[in-house]
């Protein structure tokens, strides 16, 4: 079954999935503007505050020039159909025309709403990041996507992907077995809930002045161009 945009299963699944997921490796050796507020220094009652850290913390390494004036943040699930659509139809043009030219930098954040393999895949990417290869693993995951909850992101396949991009398999497997990045993944999911996201992909464009524009779903390349160019003209 395809979620479109993929619908959140519920707040409780992430914590449960994190516990379940890593046993599989035991045998392996233009839309609403958001207002940012300063990070609270004390715990406050009521809904969580949205700060700049909600968008940029607990995610991937930056792709592109760290000093690029615009930041594009994607909340995604590696099993999500429409996340895969964005990857294959839109992302390459953004990379070529905006990231590689130093205008935009990208951050990917996990919002695991489909199933346990989603969390396994997220952890595989973060373990690859320990060897400086987050984005290579991110790309091979989407390149091998074949659906939701059908086994393509099994433990065996995740290991094969690690081998194909040339990771140190012993180091990567130990990271997976120990669940080294489980807290980061949980925190990213909590950031998504703080933003009241209900599906993936969800994008946030942070302009040079800190204004945040949301883009929900696998919108075409032209939708991003309008926002990027508007921010660059300021």
Q: Helix- and strand-based class?
A: alpha+beta
Q: How many β strands by DSSP? A: 7
What gross morphology would you assign? globular
Overall number of domains: 1
Name the CATH architecture: 3-Layer(aba) Sandwich
Description:
The chain is an alpha+beta fold and 234 residues long. The protein has one domain (9-29, 33-38, 47-232): Glutaredoxin (3-Layer(aba) Sandwich). 44% of the residues lie in helices and 13% in strands. It has nine helices and seven strands. The protein has helices spanning 13-21, 52-56, 81-99, 116-129, 134-143, 155-164, 169-178, 182-194, 221-232, and strands at 6-7, 33-34, 70-76, 104-110, 199-200, 202-206, 212-216. The protein has a five-stranded mixed β-sheet with strand order 2-7-6-3-4. Strands 1-5 form a two-stranded antiparallel sheet. It is globular and about 50 Å long. Mean pLDDT is 86; it is low at 1-5 and 7-44.
């Amino acid at each position: 079954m395809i979620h479109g945009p993929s619908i959140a299963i519920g707040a409780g699944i992430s914590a449960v999935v994190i516990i379940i997921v890593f046993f599989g490796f035991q045998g392996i050796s233009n839309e609403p503007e958001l207002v940012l507020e300063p990070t609270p220094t004390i715990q406050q009652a009521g809904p969580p505050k949205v700060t700049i850290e909600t968008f940029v913390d607990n995610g991937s390494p930056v792709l592109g020039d760290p000093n690029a004036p615009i930041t594009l943040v994607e909340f995604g699930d590696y099993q999500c159909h429409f996340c895969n659509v964005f990857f294959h139809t839109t992302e390459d043009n953004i990379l070529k025309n905006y990231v590689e030219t130093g205008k935009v930098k990208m951050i990917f954040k996990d919002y695991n709403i489909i199933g346990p393999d989603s969390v396994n895949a997220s952890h595989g990417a973060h373990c690859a990041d320990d060897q400086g290869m987050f984005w290579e693993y991110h790309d091979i995951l989407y390149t091998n996507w074949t659906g939701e909850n059908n086994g393509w992101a099994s433990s065996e396949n995740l290991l094969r992907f690690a081998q194909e991009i040339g990771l140190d398999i012993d180091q990567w497997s130990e990271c997976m077995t120990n669940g080294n990045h489980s807290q980061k993944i949980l925190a990213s999911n909590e950031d998504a809930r703080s933003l009241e996201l209900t599906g993936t992909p969800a994008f946030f464009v942070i302009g040079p002045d800190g204004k945040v524009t949301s883009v929900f779903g696998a919108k075409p390349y032209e939708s991003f161009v309008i926002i990027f160019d508007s921010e660059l003209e300021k």
